[in-house]
Amino acid sequence: MAVSQPANGIVPMAELEKQTILNALAQVNGDKMLAARRLGIGKTTLYRKLKEYGSQN
């Protein structure tokens, strides 16, 4: 999943974080516990971030 470049060439950190999390989930076939482990974050953090993104992953 590529992050589109805005006109000013700067991608907001929140967008990079979102894409990193969604890419990790895709790589582990949706296994949230494994994705959290590989990202080095807690499962609660992962679930909170997904809720923020409005993602049903």
Describe this structure in words.
There is one protein chain. This protein has a single domain (13-52), classed as Homeodomain-like (Arc Repressor Mutant, subunit A, Orthogonal Bundle). The chain has helices at 13-27, 32-39, 43-53. The model has no long low-confidence stretch (mean pLDDT 89). Helix 1 packs across helix 2 and helix 2 crosses helix 3. By secondary structure, the protein is an all-alpha fold. The chain starts with 12 loop residues before the first helix and ends with a helix.
Short account of what is shown:
The protein has one domain (13-52): Orthogonal Bundle (Arc Repressor Mutant, subunit A).
**Chain-averaged pLDDT:** 89
CATH-defined architecture = Orthogonal Bundle
Coarse morphology? elongated
Which regions are unreliable across 5 or more consecutive residues at pLDDT < 50?
Answer: none
Q: What's the order of the H and E elements?
A: HHH
Q: Treating each run of at least 4 consecutive H or I residues as one helix, how many helices?
A: 3
Radius of gyration: 12 Å
Number of domain units: 1
Largest sheet entry? none
The end-to-end distance, rounded to whole angstroms, is 15 Å
The CATH class name reads: Mainly Alpha
The fourth-level CATH homologous superfamily is Homeodomain-like
CATH fold annotation: Arc Repressor Mutant, subunit A
Helix content: 55-70%
Proportion of beta-strand residues: under 5%
Question: Total number of β-strand segments?
Answer: 0
Class computed from helices, strands and strand pairing = mainly alpha
